[in-house]
Amino acid sequence: MRVAKYLHSCLLVEEAGVRLLIDPGRFSFAEGRVRPEDFGRLDAVALTHHHPDHADPAALVEIVHRTGARLLGNRETAQALRGYGLDVTVVEAGEYRIGALRLDGVPADHEPILDDHTPANTAYLVGGVLLHCGDSLHPGLLAHRGVAVAAVPVTAPFLTERAVAGFVAQLQPGAVLPVHDGHARDFFLQQRYDTYRRYVERLGVVFHALIEPGAGITVGRPGPP
Fold this sequence. Notes:
Elements: E1 2-5, E2 11-15, E3 18-22, H1 26-29, E4 44-46, H2 57-67, E5 70-73, H3 75-82, E6 88-90, E7 94-98, E8 101-107, E9 122-126, E10 130-132, E11 149-153, H4 161-171, E12 175-179, H5 186-202, E13 206-207, E14 216-218
Parallel strand pairs: 3-4, 4-5, 5-6, 10-11, 11-12, 12-13
Antiparallel strand pairs: 1-2, 1-14, 2-3, 7-8, 8-9, 9-10
């Protein structure tokens, strides 16, 4: 599996001929470093929740028009995007197939925020090897302890670095791919990444510091015991 990051929480996954985009939000496109056409052919777009930094309506309209990709998300996300003429297939819990690629929806509460409403957040387990947490460090995600790669939010008003570190220590993934960091300048990100890396490597966890749009990693499937 190939996983490329396009700023903030936006990941492009390629596996078995399937191309899945996750969380194309406004912070990915804000400065013109990423454009909707950069993703090329897409089979589906999965949205963890409807906040605009994860689901940019204008970009989604363009992506669907260009690619015909299916939109996937929870019921609240589907309702929020309906007003933009976007049809979202509801995926909340359990298995969904995109061609040969398996996608599992994992309900995981959004971290508490300073707002009257906290949106429903759906994490995704992609191909059994990549866990995209969305905006969640919910204990229910620990059911996927030992997952090959976890895309974990690392900078946000709703979390602390200690909370992130504690979550990673419990989840024990093979590697961490930091997300939810598109609002920070690159020099600040590098500093925070260095701090996280020192900590998680002591846990035996790899830390993938991807800053440039389109930078990626290859995720192998675990071999037999």
